[in-house]
Design goal:
The chain has about 160 residues and is an alpha+beta fold. The chain folds into 2 domains: about 10-60; about 65-155, no CATH class. Helix content is about 50%, strand content about 20%. The chain has 7 helices and 5 strands; from the N terminus they run ααααβββαβαβα. It has helices spanning about 10-15, 15-25, 30-40, 40-60, 100-105, 125-135, 145-155, and strands at about 65-70, 70-80, 80-90, 115-120, 140. The chain has a 5-stranded antiparallel β-sheet, sandwiched between helices. Strand 1 (about 65-70) and strand 2 (about 70-80) form a beta hairpin. The radius of gyration is 21 Å and the shape is elongated. The two termini are about 40 Å apart.
């Protein structure tokens, strides 16, 4: 398996898509029930293949992720051949994961305790796997509004 297996909740949400996936392999509901009880390892493989297909579809469309901790923000934009990251570091007791802390940052972007960095990183051989690793490490998929705002501000 390339990514990670979907959770039970995700499978429930994608129930119809999973049925369609099995149908493309000419597996009926009765056959699936039999596979689950008599060939659990085959059932596990089917769940893994479906999970990877779902992840591939999601990752292909991801354009931005962000990772926010108490004093650091990392905003990623996925370009065609590289990713661009904007880093924001706050030196001090401000916690940008709170509403008050984030509001402080918005009002004090040019404060001496706020440092901006940016960089470019080429993808490995697998662009989607690079995105997946960021998501697995705590990054959230976004529409990129914060990235675009900060990118305009510092460039």
């Amino acid at each position: 398996m390339k990514y990670s297996r979907l959770t039970k909740e995700q499978f429930e949400e994608l129930h119809q898509e999973f049925i369609n996936f099995l149908a493309t392999q000419s597996i009926t509901a009765e056959e699936w029930a039999t596979i689950k009880t008599k060939q659990p390892e085959v059932a596990e493989q089917e769940l893994d293949v479906f999970s990877d297909l779902v992840w591939e579809g999601v990752l292909k469309s991801v354009k931005y992720v962000e990772q926010i901790s108490a004093q650091n923000i990392h905003l990623f934009s996925f370009k065609e051949d590289h990713m661009h990251v904007i880093g924001i570091k706050i030196d001090g007791p401000i916690d940008v994961t709170t509403k008050d802390g984030f509001n402080w940052l918005r009002e004090n972007l040019m404060d001496e305790t706020v440092t901006f960095t940016q960089g470019k990183k080429d993808y490995s051989e697998d662009k989607n796997l690079d995105k997946f690793k960021l998501i697995q490490s705590g990054s959230a998929i976004t529409k990129g509004e914060l990235y675009e705002y900060m990118n305009t501000l510092i460039n």
